[in-house]
Amino acid sequence: MVARRSAPTLDDVARVAGVSRATVSRAVRGGHLVSGDTRQAIAEAIKQLGYVPNQVARSLAMRRSNTIAVVVSEPHARVFRDPFFATSVAGVAERLEPTDWQMALYLAYGGYRQKLEQFLRGGTVDAVLVVSHHDDDLLATLLEEVAIPCAFLGRPARGERMDRGYSVAERFVDLDNVVGGRIAGQHLVGQGCRRIATITGPMDVASARERLDGFQQALAEAGLEPVGVYHGNFEPESAQVQTLELLRDENDFDGLFVASDHMAAAAMAVLTAHGKTIPGQVRVIGFDDAEIAKGTVPALSTITNPWRELAIAATEMVLAELDGDPHGGPVILQPRLVARQSTE
């Protein structure tokens, strides 16, 4: 009887590729801390040996579910209609596709917040990527307590420092929203606006506060103050309500900074319906460089916000921690102005 040939192992792949077993393990899991040449040598060794990873055995041995939770702290109706979330989740999926990791979508608003906590404390997932969050979610505090690898899209509410050598509050990727708000304000001032109003995002979200701060800084540098600060919530309906309020206040404004493009498009529709010409009487600038900004009439000036790149960077941060490299600090991307007809 011919003895059955044993299946090739990670050690076999490491020997043929001329690298360590740990390096092969990282490469097979899709870890990013492996050079291109090394990854190619490992791929050739795997092909030569016919190595097939035993995912079930590995997951059991490492007590892993091979699942990363993508957490969104917003009502489900908004999650499935706002392109920010679709683009962000698509970015996560794009980065995880060539790896062994699977993602699962979890909501964290209302009653879902308690369900999420139960899942995390029960060890159902191996890591968490928070796509959307608010101050009162206390998600950073929860993730400190459960001591699970994580990253946030956007600066989280500050959690307590634990024994892992870093704070969850440092585990985020974000746009420099203060700079973005400053650029928006400076652009309106540079276009000759002197009576400028703003419609903000929700003040329990760091990005909304920071965009407002940057905008106010730009006006202060020009010796100006906003003629009105109206608080929206990133929903187009809130912009409609706040634009009507702005018109009722009769501030004779000539510039308007709106904290998201979807709100700005809604604001422009209200202004036009009430006889305001854009940019003749009011120059309008949004934020995000969303697809809708190209389709408004006139086309909307805006500030870039690379959602896909942020999502991929946050995913990289989580994968690095799962690979044993948890010390990467915040990653901050820089915005830029996209000037279109609404501010000409």
Automatic annotation (TrEMBL):
A GO term for molecular function: DNA binding
Where does the record locate the signal sequence feature?
Answer: none
Known SMART domains for this protein?
A: HTH_LACI (SM00354)
InterPro entries the record matches: Cro/C1-type_HTH, HTH_LacI, LacI/GalR-like_sensor, Lambda_DNA-bd_dom_sf, Peripla_BP_I
Q: Where is the HTH cro/C1-type domain?
A: 9-52
SUPFAM superfamilies tied to this protein: lambda repressor-like DNA-binding domains, Periplasmic binding protein-like I
Q: Where in this chain does the record put each HTH lacI-type domain?
A: 8-62
- This protein's superkingdom? Bacteria
PROSITE patterns, alphabetically? HTH_CROC1, HTH_LACI_1, HTH_LACI_2
For this UniProt record, the keywords arranged alphabetically read as follows:
DNA-binding, Transcription, Transcription regulation
Per its UniProt record, what PANTHER family does this chain match? HTH-TYPE TRANSCRIPTIONAL REGULATOR GALS, LACI-RELATED TRANSCRIPTIONAL REPRESSOR
- Protein name per Swiss-Prot or TrEMBL: LacI family DNA-binding transcriptional regulator
Q: Which organism is it from?
A: Arachnia rubra
Q: What is the lineage of its organism?
A: Bacteria, Bacillati, Actinomycetota, Actinomycetes, Propionibacteriales
